[in-house]
């Protein structure tokens, strides 16, 4: 059983979505011990003992996570199907940037990453939006990074 199926079918977590079930769309992205993971490609048994965070678990009570708040403020979704995966991926990506992890488009692998729009697009390229809300998604992530 995949982590996605365990989350949805056994635990009732509806935030991660089954989009393609092949690891190509990112709708099922969750955080596994703080790192983003495509849950349809992870066996549930491999995540045994790990801390799994879905988009629903990112907030603090009634307060939205800063990335989720930026998505709301910037209208970074249309149908909303991909939004939980986009938000989890953005949170994980921003943590990667803070840790200094370079991307494939980095000019200097030893320099601290600069989060430009192109850098955000590259780092989020595994998350697809069928509604093409990308301009607002990129803007929301950029604003969340500044907060």
From TrEMBL:
CDD domains: fer2 (cd00207). Pfam families: Fer2 (PF00111), Fer2_2 (PF01799). GO terms for molecular function: 2 iron, 2 sulfur cluster binding; metal ion binding; oxidoreductase activity, acting on the aldehyde or oxo group of donors. Keywords: Iron, Metal-binding, Oxidoreductase. Residues 1-58 form the 2Fe-2S ferredoxin-type domain. It comes from the Bacteria. The keyword Ribosomal protein does not apply. Gene3D superfamilies: 3.10.20.30, [2Fe-2S]-binding domain (1.10.150.120). This is Xanthine dehydrogenase, Fe-S binding subunit [Gordonia sp. KTR9]. It comes from Mycolicibacterium parafortuitum (Mycobacterium parafortuitum).
